[in-house]
Write a structure and sequence with these properties.
The chain is an alpha+beta fold. It contains 12 helices and 15 strands. The strands form 2 sheets. It has an 11-stranded mixed sheet, with helices on both faces. A 4-stranded antiparallel sheet has the order 1-3-4-7. The chain has 2 domains: 145 residues, Aminopeptidase (3-Layer(aba) Sandwich), CATH 3.40.630; 172 residues, Aminopeptidase (3-Layer(aba) Sandwich), CATH 3.40.630.30.
Length: 391
């Protein structure tokens, strides 16, 4: 077997066909490892990164790919950090090595290549690796075996997945939902139907998608602004990336860009993906002016129902265990972070900084949650007071 390192973007772009063929033969055939997803991320988010893609060949057959990049950033005025990460980190819910055969040997070759180039990085920081990945045991093994590095592999989140094949149809599945939630969703849908013409549809062409994208972005900004949070679309680069995804994926039937309209007014949206018989529920949003009707839950009902009718195998609600996800019968998949530091002086210093940073981050989140809870309470009191006055 031989190894090839790709550091040039143009060389990376040329790999699209063979990359996706290898992914299709692997045990980790998930959307977030497709070449289109990774290369579009690089187009818009590659600044401050250096490609470090490892290819493993068996004669003329490509059998393994490690989609890696080195991120360079300052963490203190006098200290910069070079982290070896997966390409498209931060926007992908699942990432991993792509291996088609000889898993142990390929993983060892990839890892030894990473160690041979240790001057390129200060730490290895790979996430989110699925707990049911065929490579997970190998990540665990290498954390223990390489004493020259200090590190860990730990669960950092979970994804919520519905196995559609466990149910005979939509009615069988929906019937198993807690009656309280099922009744509430049906009641809210009936309320909207009484207000006019409620229509669910999916974008079919790029031109149609561009028109809907504008309303989608505005609703997303309005929705998060209503709870004092910043929308990802406050950054124009994010809008451009979604436009590019729309352009590339629509023609390949990999995109689900759906919307719910009431009397021709869009009230809920979903921008996600369909790949390998699996639905990826990625970026939902709704118009907060209609929040009393729970349009997001109604939209989710339509999407799951459609996934049954299209005979998909899984409906993946992806990373995060928010309450609105957990009301749907599901299973959880743990997601792991694989992190290693060098055991030299700089590695020890960086490890200590990361430990302090994690404690500080948890403290900030706790303070933010308390502050956010107080703001919500004030809003609820104002709404109740206004309602009493009007009545």
């Amino acid at each position: 077997m031989r190894v090839q390192i790709i550091t040039d973007y143009n060389e990376f772009k040329k790999l699209e066909q063979i990359w996706n063929e290898v992914l299709n033969r692997s045990n980790n055939n998930v959307f977030f490892l497709r070449h289109e997803w990774l290369s579009i991320w690089w187009e818009f988010c590659g600044d401050g990164h250096e490609l470090f893609i490892i290819l493993v060949w068996d004669s003329e057959e490509l059998i393994a790919i490690a989609p890696l990049t080195v991120e360079k950033r300052k963490i203190m005025p006098i200290l910069s950090l070079k982290s070896l990460k997966f390409i498209a980190h931060g926007v992908s819910d699942y990432l991993d090595f792509i291996i088609t055969k000889n898993s142990d040997a390929c993983f060892k070759i990839i890892f030894e290549q990473i160690l041979d180039c240790r001057e390129k990085w200060d730490c290895i920081d790979l996430f989110y690796i699925r707990g049911d990945s065929s490579n997970f045991r190998l990540f665990q093994k290498y954390v223990k075996e390489y004493k020259a590095l200090s590190g860990s592999i730990k669960a950092v989140d979970s994804s919520v997945v519905i196995n559609l094949e466990e149910y005979s149809d939509w009615f069988d599945y929906f019937g198993k939902m807690d009656k309280k939630y099922r009744s509430d969703i049906n009641r809210q849908e009936n309320r909207l139907n009484k207000l006019g013409n409620l229509i669910f549809d999916r974008v079919k062409t790029y031109n149609e998608g561009i028109e809907i994208l504008s309303s989608f972005v505005k609703s997303h900004e309005k929705r998060w602004g209503a709870v004092f949070q910043r929308s990802q679309f406050s950054d124009s680069q994010s809008i451009e990336r979604y436009s590019r995804l729309l352009e590339v994926l629509t023609n390949k039937n990999l995109l689900d860009f759906s919307y719910l309209k009431l009397n021709a007014i869009p009230i809920a949206f979903h921008f996600g993906y369909i790949y390998n018989k699996q639905f990826y529920y990625y970026t939902p949003t709704f118009n907060p002016e209609y929040s009393i009707f729970s349009p997001g839950k109604i939209m989710l009902k339509y999407l799951i129902n459609k996934s049954f009718s299209e005979r998909l195998r899984y409906f993946d609600l992806l990373r995060g265990t928010e309450e609105y996800k957990m009301i749907w019968p599901n299973k959880l998949i743990n997601l792991y972070q694989f992190r290693l530091f060098k055991t030299n002086l700089s590695g020890i210093i960086l490890f200590g900084i990361f430990q302090i940073f994690n404690v500080f981050k948890k403290l900030l989140i706790s303070v933010a949650n308390i502050s956010f809870g107080r703001k919500l309470l004030i809003i609820k009191r104002k709404i109740l007071w206004k309602t009493k006055i009007e009545n």
